[in-house]
Each structure stands twice: as structure tokens, then as C-alpha cells.
Amino acid sequence: MPRLFTGIEIPLGIAEALAPFRGGLPGARWIESADYHITLRFLGDVERSLAEDLCEGLAEARPRAPIPITLEGLSSFGGDKPRALYAAVSPVPDLMDLQAEQERVARRAGAEPERRKFTPHVTLARLRREASPEAVAMYLSQAPIFEPLRFEATRVALFSARESTGGGPYVTEAVFPFA
Asked: Is-above-0.85 flag for pTM?
């Protein structure tokens, strides 16, 4: 059973611009820049038939114009128990519409509904227990200035992940251009 998710690939230049934010946080397991992406719909371990139906649905998705993407700052998930450091992505209407379409396609393919609210982001690091809330707050307050990073998304990718603790490596299994 493949472990799958759909997402937007991060261009090399944007990934390189995120490099200065790597390091300096105890307990962080940094994601390789080649594995940066914006997850649209996580599916997890799925049967091959669901994966095939998903691909068919993604191929039939309506045409759309490129979507402007802006990475606008650093933040973390987990509050008092931080679990990830990320670059926040501006939730523009076209991106939110794309994610809603991904949810519909996944459900039609037989996936269970996603229960978490979509928060567009690029995960930079997974955090272990030694990354205390205080250490994360200190890291965020002392990180270099985050100038907005912009690019246009022109396709959705279907990714697979090896069984691991998360964070890659990811393989692009198929791509679905917008137009």
C-alpha cells in the first residue's frame, strides 16, 4: 500500500531562499529542501484501487489558471508541545479552492474525510521533545528577517513517501498541470 498525498512542489529558488532558516533549534529534524512542498491532501497508506481512482480524478480536475503563492513568515504547530516549524503560506482564495477540490477528489476516490482544518504551509522541521516552547519562541524571535517569497503554482503533484517518521524522502509519482 503506497503512502500518498497531493501537494504543490516548491521551486528550487524558493527552497534555496529558505536555507538561512535551517539550523539553530535544538530538537529540530530539518526537512531536506528537495522535499519541501505544500500538502493539499494527505491520504496515508491506501489500497492501490483508491490510488488509481485518485489519479483518475486528479487527471479530470477542471482547468485552472496558475495560482500565486506567497510564503509570508515562520511559525510553529503544537503550542505548548511544538511538533513542527514551518513557513506560512498566504491562504488566497484560489489556493483554498484548489485544496477543497483535492478533498472532493479524494472523497470520490474512497478516502475518509480530512478532519483537520487546512493551514497552507511548508514544513521546514519536525520537532522532537527537546524543542521546548521556549526554545521555539526564541528561535522564531531571533530568526533572520523573513522577506515574502513568491512563485506561481501551475500543477498539483501526487507524492509517495517511504515509511518513516515523516519528513521524506518523497517521490513525485505523477503531476497534473492546471491548464
From this structure: yes
